[in-house]
Amino acid sequence: MTEADRTAIDLAQFELLAATRRTSLRMDKARSVPIEVIERLCRVAMWAPNHHKTWPWRFAHFTGDGRARLGSTIADALEADGFVDERKLEKYRVKYNRAPSMLVVGSAAGSTSIETLENRDAVSAGVQNLLLAATAAGLASFWSSGAPVADDAVAALCRWEPDSAVVAVIYLGWPDAELPSPERPLPAITEIDH
User: Which terminus has fewer CB within 10 Å in the chain: N or C?
Assistant: First the structure.
């Protein structure tokens, strides 16, 4: 994209997009999300600020039986860590089947602890870009944090570098119901003039 390709969008339109972002698991499970849409969403995510140009974003797209494999990987890692609630473990094994597409977004480790934190911040900002783009494309989405104790197992499943962190497990699909946007409080802004 060049500077000449840019056109300003109305701030009110952008506010509406942000305010009506579909945070929802009410999705048509039978209607798949085309891979071209997933690829575009991932490209939009990568336009987030990245302080040292480390390009830390990692993506893995799960569909079909891959969704159950993701759930089993997380459940197995939890169980290996001593988690014993069988009902919740079973829920992990099946819950990713609630959406036709599961997109796992990870952050590569940095060369220092500060760079690792900055990488995660960049990936988190990218996830917000991705969620807004999903709404613009007409998709419903839901950002789950997964289970941090399972990060190594999920990173291995996704074929990412060791020490990659899972930032988001995103449910994506076409909405099958309209849900109202929740009200948000006004921001508290401290004005400092000197």
Answer: C
d(CA 118, CA 138): 31
Please state, in angstroms and rounded to a whole number, the distance separating the CA atoms of residues 27 and 40.
20
The pLDDT confidence band at residue 194, using thresholds 50, 70 and 90, is confident
pLDDT tens, position by position, 65-87 = 999 999 999 999 999 999 989 99
Q: What is d(CA 70, CA 129) in angstroms, rounded to the nearest whole number?
A: 24
CB-CB contact of 168 with 105 (8 Å): yes
Q: Name the token pair of 94.
A: 């099946």
Q: Report the C-alpha gap between 22 and 9 in whole angstroms.
A: 20
Q: How far apart are CA 163 and CA 14, in angstroms?
A: 36
Local structure of 165: helix, strand or coil: strand
Helices (H), the chain: 11-19, 35-45, 65-80, 86-94, 113-136, 151-157
pLDDT band at 99 (very low <50, low <70, confident <90, very high): very high
Closest to 91 (Cα-Cα) out of 79, 104, 82: 79
Distance CA 101, CA 121 (A): 24
Q: What span, in angstroms and rounded, lies between the C-alpha atoms of 69 and 184?
A: 36
Residue 128: Cβ within 10 Å count? 15
Averaged over 156-168, what is the pLDDT?
Answer: 96
Domains defined along the chain, listed by start: 22-173 (3.40.109.10)
